[in-house]
Amino acid sequence: MSIPTNSDGFSLIEVLVSAAVLSVATLGITSAWKLADDKALAARLDERSTRILAEYAELQNFAPRYLFGQATSSFRTDSETQGVPLNPGETRNGFLYHPHHVDATGRTTANALFDDAIPYQVTLLVDGQGQLMRLTYRLPYLSDSKGTVAKEIRLNLRQ
Amino acid sequence: MAIHLSRERGFTLVELLAAIVSMVVILGAATGLAITAIARQKVAFDASQLEATHAELANAIFYAIKTADNFQIFNDANSANFSSSRSYGVGSSSGNYLSCRHSLNGGGGPGELVEQDYEFVRTSTDGSGTLVRTIRFLSSGQPEIRREFAGVIAASPIFSMRNGIPQAHWSIVTSLDRADFDVYAMPLSMQ
Description:
The complex is a heterodimer.
Chain A: H1 12-62, H2 78-81, E1 91-99, E2 117-127, E3 130-138, H3 144-147, E4 148-154
Antiparallel strand pairs in A: 1-2, 2-3, 3-4
Chain B: H1 13-66, E1 70-74, E2 94-95, E3 97-104, E4 112-122, E5 128-137, E6 145-153, E7 159-160, E8 167-173, E9 177-184
């Protein structure tokens, strides 16, 4: 009587283990890619927000006096508020990221269309030491509490 | 004496072929992943580099205006009116040509008059073009320094005196997104 042998191929367990190892490796690679993308986006947003805050600070410090106190609305668009300083307590909105528009088929549109993503708010605050400008935005890949980024700059206003 | 030959030693041709095919498949997949990773890195690097270059340009325009003894905006290079090396002719409230002049005193010497010009050269009807920065040494006549910043998008004139503030606005399109640049700068001599 001959005894059947398992040595002619892989067992189900071997195949499952190798598939699991490959899946973990693939998952690790894609996770590393996503992490790299997230970090690159965070660095880009950090650089842009710093630049925007510096632009607002320059505007706030050196804009002609007649521009202050103009009636403003926080819903005005960027182009309408270009070159207009903020009033104390006022918040100005904008977007830090304008990715290429992707159509319904998942393709990037040929014409130069861009979406508005990652909104930011710039607020002019007044405290005991003078005026403070604060810019806040939220990193999209983190939760509310961890993903909120706030940057501040104290204004050196002319006397 | 009988020699016992065993078929269990070594690989069969089928096993060898299967192993080679498996290795080729795995190497192919790994190479594909590596190529994709390198391509993604290059896209991100190019985008960052373009943005950093234009951030440097924005900084240069900011300090050129900020430290200028005299500056003027013109519609374009053809209408730029340099009446003398010390003063400008009539300019425009907005345009694609900005000229800033600085007097540099060289420790009791005759000093140097430096002119920094920024010109937007439109290369396409869709508003895209190149910003050209030229530094001229008007007193000593040293060779000018010229640098071009490509990939600029501007629907309206880049430089303006809107609301009485010298400012510049333009955009760039990277492989990932669009980045906007806004410069506001008040010359120290005007503050």
